[in-house]
Prior knowledge:
The chain is an alpha/beta fold. Helix content is about 40%, strand content about 15%. The site of pyridoxal-5'-phosphate (PLP) has 13 residues, from helix 6.
Amino acid sequence: MNERMYGLGSKRSVIRETFEYGKRRAAEVGAENVYDFSLGNPSVQPPAVVAETLQELLQSEDATALHGYTSAQGDASVRRAIADYISSSQGVPADPDRIYMTCGAAASLTITLSALCSAGDEVITFKPYFTEYKVFAETAGARLVALPSVPDTFQIDLSALERAIGPRTAAVLINSPNNPSGAVYGEETIRGLAAILTARSEELGRTIYLVTDEPYRELVYGGVQVPYVTKYYPHSVVCYSYSKSLSLPGERIGYIFVNPAAAEAEKLYLAVCGAGRALGYVCAPSLFQKLVARCQGVTADVSAYEKNRDLLAGALRAYGFSCVQPDGAFYLFVKAPGGDATAFCEQAKAFDLLLVPGDDFGCEGYVRIAYCVSHAMIERSLPAFKKLAASYGL
Length: 394
Ligand code: PLP
């Protein structure tokens, strides 16, 4: 038996465990009395056009084609629609033959890292980072190197990056808008990042690729812009997903976009195809490939998340907690009073508030609160947060 796989399967994620605890607790005290902020499952309905398009597809398309295998890299007309949308919305060149349809961002990342890395390579990312990055990097035979970000703002620490890049660095992986901090990396940061990657790639005689994990690209507030990295650094691979933008996480649909101007773009794209094959993906779900092709530019109602953010962040600060205002995604990353995040989450449980310690995201002393829940639940939870604050003497 494979001990690494056994280890991955037998170690339950804290997020899942908290979620399961919430279900058990709801059976005891009633679902309306448990405030589960553990999971990043969208609470906003998919846009109406999703159901309409599914119905149209089911009525108008031949069922064997609709439910059949597509090419491994995805249906050609779907890839064309996505490339056209990237070009028109971002003003960058995009080519359907550099797009590979996937089963969501998790698959996009595993495939991309497997395509880019050889045994012993390093993938650099920044804390806090999505818990699965370590698993994805190690599956690719690489080691995840997680660097600190700038304290309090959770922006990329460019000088730490400069120091960390070495001869084994295959890729730098960023996630903006960020899970769990909600930070969005602005244009200056991306320019700085690109300058470092360009200079260090030249010095090392090896192209360091930039991989961006973008399931939250459209979930931004107050007009904040998310720079499109291919404009700033040619050697970029965009890992996109519709899980959050269309509220379809269970349907498993996304894509990889290899920038046509990247070094060895064709070879890298073929390595992506090879990694997808080696990992047994066969093809992304055919029905949902066709759906997303017809829903380019459509996004679920982001204003509901913004309303949640404003209510929760405002109330928590008023109660004495400290957190940065997230510009995107749907998480608050709150400093644990006393500094012990696990103890804080346990204490929160006493008030039926289910939060997740930041340790698994590489940041001790913080907790993640997923506010992709109903507004009514946030309203009901506020007295419990107030009591929790009081229990810490805030
Ligand atoms: N990357 C980040 C930062 C995420 O938060 C998530 C899911 O929550 C994923 C990747 C995986 O997304 P998907 O459901 O598209 O696989």
